[in-house]
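Researcher: Re-running this chain for the archive, since the previous output was lost when a drive failed. Same request as before.
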Amino acid sequence: MKKSVKKLAVFFLALGAVFSAFAGGSKDTGKTQAPAGQAAGAALKVGFVYIGTINDEGYTQAHDKGRLAIEALGVKTAYIENVAENADCEKAIRDLIDQGCTAIYTNSFGFMDWTIKVAADYPQVYFGHCSGYKRAPNVSTYFGKIYQARYLSGIAAGLKTAANHIGYVAAMPIPEVIRGINAFTLGVQSVNPSATVEVIWTNTWYDPSVEKQAALELLNKGCDVIAQHQDTTAPQIAAQERGAFAVGYNVATANAAPRAYLTAPLFHWEVFYVDDVKRIQAGTWTSRAYWEGFSNGTVSLDTLTANNAPGAADAINQARERIVAGTFEPFTGPLTDQSGTIKVPAGVKMSDDEIWNMNWFIQGVIGTIPQ
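Model: Regenerated structure tokens:
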């Protein structure tokens, strides 16, 4: 997800108070009704406000697959791409409404306040905001438990590394990225306790040159597997150029760096979008907080390539089956932070709320979280 770094300090102060209402999967609020003015079964036109481009080989491309799935239902759609996390978002939303859209989805965290603002002016329009926590009678929030797939990708990386030193090109120092790094590291440690994961922050979501340079810096430090949390394939390309290996993100990108690519955590936004549109059409829509993972197909791990280590498929499949069955949660104690302080006691599972708000690194991560 995309997030504005300028207000991180404010976000960290507010997160604990507000995200508890979001975490915990898909929930109807029980206090809202579908927007007046959209009769059940009435024709819809659905609009999307995108932070990136539909061919970015990453986050926005994954969302656009969801838009295409809506079109396959016979529903008209429209989209505006490359929208900045400022007043441009408000303009884009209003432009889509002027084009006749009666449902709007905005796919970046930094779009949250603009979505809420416009929604108040158009109570008859349905809204969905990806990754945020503010809702209204006509505004839902939605995201995927991608950390589950991150954990599995960590298993692939942990089995592949020969240096026991893995690099992670990280976007913004926010809970979403932090829990992804931690989940990945836990996956690494589950099969290779000696391995470490070193983090470099780029403060970007889509900047190929910056993200490639960060990957090269990690490779220069001796990392032989690179993971990432950005929308470009630049870190994967850097790994291939150096004879190393890489874990992608958002969509399958094996063709971008075929000699390096191991796998990637994937989003399947169509699972949410199709469900939400069908609720609108049926007249059963209510504002909700949606956070789902493997259990309903919102996230997955890409097919493993031949670059993976022997035994990777079996180890990953076993872990996935346990997660889906509910017999294993990656964030289960004992978990210690970088200082060795126990954060989660042995046998205790972190709650969805605690996972959603995570703002500390586990032991085994090299790097700091900027404040």
